[in-house]
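Worked example 4.2. Below are the chains of a multi-component assembly; read each line carefully before continuing.
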Amino acid sequence: MNFSVLSSQFWSLCLQGVALGFIYVLISLGYTMVYGVLRLINFANSEVVMMGTFATVVAEVAILKNVSTSDPLHGFRLVYTLVFALVFSSLICGLLGVLVELVAYRRLRALGTNRLASLISAIAVSIVLSEAARIYTHSAPVTAPRLLEKWSFGEIGGANFRVDTVMIILAGSIIFFALDRFVNRSRLGKAIRAVSMSEENSKLMGINLNRVISLTFFIGGLTTGAAAFFYTTVYETTQFNVGFNLGLAAFTAAVLGGIGNLRGAFYGGIFLGVLEQFASAILGSQWKSVTVFLVLVLVLLIKPSGIFGEAVQQTRT
Amino acid sequence: MNKKIQRSLAVASAATLVFGVSAVSSAMAAPKTVYLAFQAPLTGPNALTGQDELTGAKFALSEYNATNPAIKVELVLADDQGDATVAASVAPGIASNKTIIGLIGPAYSGATQASLPAYKAAGLPLISMSATRVSLTDPKAPVNGFPIFKRVVANDKFQGPALVRYATKGIATPKVYLVDDVSAYGAGLAEYAKKTITSAMTAGKDSVPVNTSDYTSVVAKVKASGANVVIYCGYAPDAAKFVKALRDGGYTGVFASGDGTLKADYPVNAGKAAAEGSRLTAADVPFENLVTAAQMTAFTKLTGVKVPGTYVTSTYNATNIYLACIKQGKTTRAGIQNCITTGSFKGVAGDTIKFDRYGDIIGGAAVGAFVIKDGKISYVGVA
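Applying the procedure described above to all two chains together yields the following structure tokens:
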């Protein structure tokens, strides 16, 4: 164990953990939104992230003609490229989410099959997406161009406020709070919450169930796509299997926070990001996963609804 | 389509899937032709390693076949993606193919370990061009290659110290932070590198599993340790992510790595700026430094490659050892095994290659030093 790193790098680890946590938050929203409405885990969401990272590369390289060896962008071109890639990745993932619902869930739901069947069909879709990407890329990593020069706003207590770190935290916060308001304040958000509470009653109230479920998958896909964009912008690389680790971490975050509610996913994601950083720093990087899953098991044993499960129950989607 | 043809195609496809191999030539049944398998990552993130090495094997074969020998030799390709799990599923297919009398490879240590049970059971001789993990030739190790495994490269017992030597060269007071990727290769190399790092030189150590995306916590630890040399024992895709994170995190010291990172796509994936100046080692001397101009022209004509990649020299040597035995009329696995074990062979550098009882070259082999210069790998000399 190495506690000495804490004294000099404590705030740095916190900041990096929060930034990583925001990526988890945005992905875990994809899990938690769907769970809130269907009470099912959308296992295909991990591959939706992966497709989002490739969509980001496609937007940056194939559509906007940046190359991996070019210099970072500046001014309007930079803003335009980032916004376009973010929107493109989010839309692709949103539409993919809708497609996943159509293929893996809707028909089985209409037939009234066992809930397990939907989980398996979601895993099947996940494998199809992952394998398709593997074959298409020959299992090789794909490098994204460096769009953003990694300059720093400055250091506070050893924490380096680098532009990409700040961007993730700010944009991630905006996206989360916009979604939170949408679900809690808008008419459509009310419909989502109604379906979450009771499918039968919401049908009686005239809510189009299929439309609301598709919308939920779409919104979950949008936030997942945003996470994929941030991931690709920061790490500048992706691979066909990138979704597995990210999906697992985000799913863990959702469960830690209390799956099914938005704020639980938020707290769970940030908690997990920071926990990973501290576990890596103190125990060694090879102990990161062990620590995370040990904490998950402990949390579930003590509080099966997740750390923030009950406190934020009213925000359930 | 005729049903019989359809059925035959289905059977052929299934056989290819099961055995995971594809023959370079379709003349499997031709008389006086023997087959050598070539096992390396030919697809996947580490494909460049295998594709580079394949050029060495192809060139050696073309030189041999051009002499119109009595026994023709052809290659059978086995793609293990450098992955132990894939290798374990590929090896039984190769082992059961009795027309194959020897195997060039496997290229990776983890893949070799996973393949050994199938090959040992079938008595198939192996000569690896780049599997450097020490335990493969250690009789006390639980998974060693005795008696079938030989290698024409220096193992990590030599590369580990050479890597530390080269990484710290010219630095007055080196503080070394050692990172491995927890793979059979990475952890093994790190073990032998660590033995050379004195306590005064030690800044810290970490193990980051393969396929990790986020290296920020390691970067924080490197910075906190005050290290001015970071040695990474792992493969190129992860090394590229790590060095990028280090440079973005403000680390300005030396970044060094072993042969797993010595790939042309390392500076491409890491970005020219981040990779520049990386010090790399490999138990390899560039092929173009050893062959004649005429041979280089012929090599380029055959492979389309102007600058041979890593481990082309050792692959060429490994292939030539088999060919020398075949020239002596050895066309069975047992015959080849006996020939390799007892014979003495000539390397492309004019060196003599003779294996010890457990499969290493007697006297060892040179470890080369390389640097990334202007985004490209440049040979410096012997590390």
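Take a moment to check your reading of the output against the notes. The CA atoms of residues 44 and 125 of chain A lie 6 Å apart. The beta strands of chain A are 142-143, 152-156, 159-162, 237-238.
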